[in-house]
Amino acid sequence: MHGLSYVDISNNHLEGPLPNISAFREAPLERLKGNKGLCGKVGALLPPCNAHGSKNNHKVIFSVLAVFVLLSALFSIFFVIVQRKKNHQDTKQNNMHGEISFSVLNFDGKSMYDEIIRATEDFDSTYCIGKGGHGSVYRVNLSSGDVVAVKKLHLQWDGETEFQKEFLNEVRALSEIRHRNIVKLYGFCAHKRHSFLVYEYLERGSLAAMLSKDEEAKELGWSKRVNIVKGLAHALSYMHHDCLPPIVHRDISSKNLLLDSEYEAYVSDFGTAKFLNPDSTNWTAAVGTYGYMAPELAYTMEVNENCDVYSFGVVTLEIIMGKHPGDLFSSFSSVSSSSSSSSFALPTHQIPIVDVLDQRISPHTHQVASEVVSLLKIAFSCLNSSPKSRPTMKQVSHFLSTRMLHLSKPVHMMTCGELLGLDPLAT
């Protein structure tokens, strides 16, 4: 090959290094063209051959590519793990904190939770303003200047239970309720350490507390008491007839009726409220406060609006008498379910109405007397032992708003028996 003096390998699609001999070194480019894969120190335009370097370059490229793919895979796995953990934490926090919502005051849930804990010194008894069957109520002064009532529940929040799910669903629904005689729910926390409800703060506290103190009870004149009964009736009518689905409170009592500075009534404590399903029978365990629960709950687990109607009757009597009616309303209940007034005890039948009224209040005017007697008549009908014979709260609310009894004789001459067994909506 060293004696070769002339070559022409054009257009043969050759590749690889050219021999380093004079015939190739001196060959013009025209004789070498058409062979894109040629290399070597032959001709000015051919690239030099570096087989070892090319191999190293390929190794570097493959190594970098492998590292990139590996890092991408690791990053993807890490991202998936972090995302799943975040979702789990979000779900856990939602379950633990109940998706705290302070929408009315536009507060951030987490910061509000921390502030409530600080403001009450982790719910120290010093800040407690009342206790009930379901929890203790605390007065909380917020840094914004607002005052709220926080009800810390007694229940333990351990794990997911059907009760917890229903509770959270009902609290969320109640946060959308707006009625002038229903306490505003600002938010709630469902946590295994602390479970509490945050309500608007009402200055005068519960009706039960006011009636238990002579000086405060005297401030509740007859006009104010009539207005309190009307407010309670309007709230229950709204819950039973204007909400979809209807809401049964199940624990109407004087402890759960709060008063503001103007003695306006507000229904509170919806921890045991039940949303009625119109497409099924509403069976549930009996709840409520002893002395206010409808008698049929002793033999049935079906819940409906009639249970609240009965409790309304008890509270109305309590407002009029200034104390819980006790055994008195049991006589009224047995009589109101009978078509004849002769079926109940004569002493109860002959009790003068004035003896039933709270003696701590100043004498009433004729107009107020008419309203009070109307309340008594409504209360007796609500205490009917037959649930189906009780009026609806819509009927009661309408009656109290538009009609009052016309007294045919002075109230001091009337007895309780004259109001029993009568249709309260017939006059």
TrEMBL record:
Places the protein is found: Membrane
Principal location listed in the UniProt entry: membrane
Membrane spanning stretches: 60-82
Catalytic reaction annotation: L-threonyl-[protein] + ATP = O-phospho-L-threonyl-[protein] + ADP + H(+); L-seryl-[protein] + ATP = O-phospho-L-seryl-[protein] + ADP + H(+)
Ranges for domain Protein kinase: 123-400
UniProt name for this protein: non-specific serine/threonine protein kinase
Organism: Prunus avium (Cherry)
Membrane topology: Single-pass type I membrane protein
GO cellular component, one term: membrane
Name of encoding gene: LOC110745666
GO molecular function: ATP binding; protein serine/threonine kinase activity
Chain sites annotated for binding ATP: 152
Keywords: ATP-binding, Glycoprotein, Kinase, Leucine-rich repeat, Membrane, Nucleotide-binding, Phosphoprotein, Receptor, Repeat, Serine/threonine-protein kinase, Signal, Transferase, Transmembrane, Transmembrane helix
Domain of life: Eukaryota
Enzyme Commission number(s) from the entry: 2.7.11.1
